[in-house]
Amino acid sequence: MDSKEEKRPAEPLEVTFYTRPGCHLCDEAKLQIAPVLAEFGARLCEVNIDADPTLFERYNLDVPVIFLADRKIAKHRVDRSQFRRQLLDARRRSGHRG
Fold first, then answer.
1. What is the CATH number of the domain that holds 69?
2. Cβ burial 25-63 (10 Å sphere, 16+ → b, else e)
3. Residue-wise pLDDT tens digits, 14-54
4. Whole-prediction pTM value?
5. Would residue 84 count as lying in a domain?
6. With CB atoms counted within 10 Å of each terminal CB, which end of the chain scores lower, N or C?
7. Distance between CA atoms of 75 and 64, rounded to whole angstroms?
8. Is pLDDT of 7 > 50?
């Protein structure tokens, strides 16, 4: 491996946010997580469950649902401090720095 590959920055953490239009809990959750996402440089991938019948069936009564990698870390309401700890733990496990 050459030195350029060794020094390549790690990919940002990716948070998947299952939501739907008009969801007030989703809007509140986004307000809670936005500063933490910015702090960690994490990417937010919003997924509208109403656009996918499988996701609709799975999460209809549970949005917002938040995943970090393949792990569900929150649903309905989000605690900002807990969300921050979960991102910090994920960054440590994956070797992210910052």
1. 3.40.30.10
2. ebeebbebbeebbeebebeeeebebeeeeebeeebeeeb
3. 999 999 999 999 999 999 999 999 999 999 999 999 999 99
4. 0.84
5. yes
6. N
7. 5
8. no
What gap in Å lies between CA 95 and CA 72, rounded to an integer?
Answer: 20
Among the listed residues 40, 34, 32, 47, the one whose alpha carbon sits nearest the alpha carbon of residue 12: 40
The answer to whether residue 78 sits within a structural domain is yes
Residue numbers of the domain that contains 41: 14-92
Amino acid identity at 13: L
Neighbours of 96 (CB within 10 A): 18
Is residue 39 in some structural domain? yes
Asked if residues 80 and 33 have their Cβ atoms less than 8 Å apart, the reply is yes
